[in-house]
Amino acid sequence: MNTKFPIFSVVMLTAFLMLSPGLGIAADKSSENQVKKPSEQAKQLQYPKRGDEMTERVLGIQFVYIEPGRFVMGSPGSELNRYPDEKQHEVQIKHGFWIGKYEVTFEQYDYFAKHSHHARPLDENWGRGKRPVMNVKWYEAVDFAKWLSRKSGHHYRLPTEAEWEYAARAGTTTAYSWGDNPADFPAYAWNTSNANKRTHPVGLKKPNPWGLYDMHGNVWEWTASTYAKGYDGSELKGSSYKSKALRSVRGGAWYFYPKGMRSADRRIYSPWLHWSYIGFRLVRDL
Description:
Elements: H1 4-19, H2 24-34, H3 40-46, E1 53-55, E2 62-66, E3 69-73, E4 89-93, E5 97-100, H4 106-116, H5 138-152, E6 156-157, H6 161-169, H7 185-188, E7 220-226, E8 247-250, E9 267-269, E10 278-279, E11 283-285
Parallel strand pairs: 7-10
Antiparallel strand pairs: 1-2, 2-5, 3-4, 5-11, 6-11, 7-8, 8-9
C-alpha cells in the first residue's frame, strides 16, 4: 500500500492550519499582535512629567511639558536694572501645560498664512525658514493659535504672562535663567552685542534649565495677558480678542541690551502693532 500521499497530505494540512489566518498557533499570535497597545507617546501625553517632549503633527512644533507649581514672580529690589513694575509676589501655576521648545518660526507661520489667507509677514530681507517669525500683531498670533487648534483638535494659545515667566525662570531666582552675570549672555541669547542687528535661527544658543530655547533674546514674545503695572491678576489669565488694551511682551530681542532680557523684565505694546523684534511661542493645554 502506498502511504506517501496520505502522509504528505497530513503534513500539508497541518502546515496550512498553522499558517492560515484565524487558524492554529500562528493565528493566535497574529490575533495577539492585532491588539493595539497604547503607545509611549499616548501615555506621555496623558500623564506627562516635567521635561517630557512632544511634537504636534500639523506643523511639527515641538513642545516641552511644564509641571504646575509655585514661584515668586517679579524681581527683588536689589536686582540690577530692575523696574518698578516688577513687584515680587507669589504665584501658583495650578495646571501643567506644554510650551513651545522654540519660538514659532517663519516656516511654520508661512504654512499657516498660505492655508488661511493671512498675509506673510515681512522678514526684513534677513531670511525666513527657521528664524523666529516677526512683524506679527498680537491678533495674528492668536489667529495662528486658533487655526492650529481647529486643524489639530487640541487647544493652543499664547502663554499668560505668569506662565511665561514661570517657564523662563525654570526654577531659578536669579536675574537670568543661567545666573546673574550678563557677561554669560553670548552663550544663551542673541542681543545687541552678538546678533549683528537681526534675528537668528531658533535653537542655536543654550537652553534654560527646563530645555527651552531663546527665552532670552532673539525676539520679544507676545503673551496672552493685558499689562497691569501693579500686577492685578491680569498676569494669570488671557485677554479678550476684542480688547484693545496694551499687552505684555517678554524675553528681550536681538536689538536690546542684557538688562532688558532679565526673566522679570516686562514691556508693553499695542496688539494692533507689529515690529521686527516681536514674535511668539505657543502653549498647548492638556
